[in-house]
Write a structure and sequence with these properties.
The chain is mostly helical. 58% of the residues lie in helices and 0% in strands. The two termini are 16 Å apart.
Length: 83
Amino acid sequence: MPGDGRSRDETLSRLKARVRMPIPTLSVTWIIASPVITSVILGASRHAQLRDTLAAADLVLPSDLKARLNDITAEYRRGDAGR
């Protein structure tokens, strides 16, 4: 999947439909689930954005979903290490 943004986007859309939560909630839930993350800095310009991101604090990401998100984003999280 590396370099194939359309496949990544389609995969993320399918995951979003499966978990039935807004992408900001899913994103922050995934970030919080990472043991190397010690803090999450949120930003919002509307109340709905803040509501969606804060909802992540009350959720637990299933391990299979976390693994799938890790796989989808691996290329982007490594930065220039593999280049």
